[in-house]
Design a protein that fits this description.
Layout lengths: L14 H12 L20 E9 L7 E6 L3 H22 L8
Antiparallel strand pairs: 1-2
Length: 101
């Protein structure tokens, strides 16, 4: 799986300045941040042969939901519902405070 080379076109990417201003308005600390060119590469959607959705095998406090590629928008709602269900079950079963009385 390779990554395509992107050509930077200032005219096509003028909206990025507005996007940065909006982000700084929400989180003023971002005004000090540096934004190298590679941060401006938007629209690249990493994918796997099979998306990773569910609880981590080694650390049960970690839940994954990535690797959807171009199908991310299509799968987002269903995958989010699955993760929500998994997280809710985890907290209900594993993280419930137990009384020592």
């Amino acid at each position: 799986m390779g990554q395509e080379t992107l050509e930077w076109n200032e005219k096509e990417h003028q909206y990025l300045g507005k996007l940065k201003v909006g982000c700084v308005n929400l989180h003023p600390d971002l005004a000090k941040a540096e934004f190298p060119d590679y941060y401006y590469r938007v629209g690249i959607r990493p994918f796997r042969d099979e998306p990773c959705v569910g609880q981590d095998d080694k650390n049960l406090k970690i839940f994954h939901n990535y690797g959807h590629g171009g199908s991310g928008y299509t799968l987002a709602y269903g995958c989010a519902l699955k993760i929500r269900k998994d997280v809710k079950e985890y907290f209900e079963n594993e993280c419930r405070p137990r009384s020592n009385l």
